[in-house]
Amino acid sequence: MKFKFAKFPRLPSAAFPDIKASPVPVITVGLSAAKKAEPLYVLALIDSGAADTIFHGDIGRHIGLRIEDGPSAEHRGVGGQVILSYFHPIHLVVGGHAVPIYAGFCDQVEPKPGLLGMRGFSEHFKVAFDYRKESIEVTPYPSRQILH
Amino acid sequence: MAELLRPYAQKWVALSWEKDRVLASGASLPEVAATVKRKGYPKPVFAFVSDPRYGLLPGMG
Lengths: 148, 61
Fold this sequence. Notes:
Low-confidence stretches of chain A: none
Strand content of chain A: over 45%
Oligomer: heterodimer
Radius of gyration of chain B: 12 Å
CATH superfamily of the domain at 25-110 and 121-126 in chain A: Acid Proteases
Order of helices and strands of chain B: HEEHE
Distance between the termini of chain A: 25 Å
Order of helices and strands of chain A: EEEEEEHEEEEHEE
Shape of chain A: globular
Mean pLDDT of chain A: 89
Structural class of chain A: mainly beta
Helix content of chain A: under 10%
Number of strands of chain B: 3
Number of helices of chain B: 2
Largest interface: A-B, 44 and 32 residues
CATH topology of the domain at 25-110 and 121-126 in chain A: Cathepsin D, subunit A, domain 1
Number of strands of chain A: 12
């Protein structure tokens, strides 16, 4: 499955005076709490630096989860701030390919709507970035075996 | 998409599946989701438009 980098508006700065937009590896993914439920589709950032896959709490609530009922884990962001996520088993749909994952939900996650990290995303999909072509290739692994 | 999203900084948006139209926007996901449901748009894609002063700063984990 090939995706194009999305371009989000960005204001010029002293370091990047000519910049008007940032190309970012966001892709459309679907989330549902049950396999046969209609997924909620969001644009989420592929973040190879994130250990887990985390979405904003409102997304979890929208698909019917009681967020705070799930087991929690703390995460530290690049700015040093600590956030608390609540984890739930959900189904993630990428390009029509659905996999069961264990994802966190947090009202403080940045950037919103969420991050596709190592656990929950990269354990199921091989990801190749081509920055010069501004494209991303996402390939489901043939094995459903999950490595932890 | 940058030009399409430029007026919606710091807002939740619902995009058409082709991402060529903003179907609805608002301060919260529930608000935007309710609007697209009421108007009957099929298969919207929800996103949050970051503050254009900054690049995205991921890394929670």
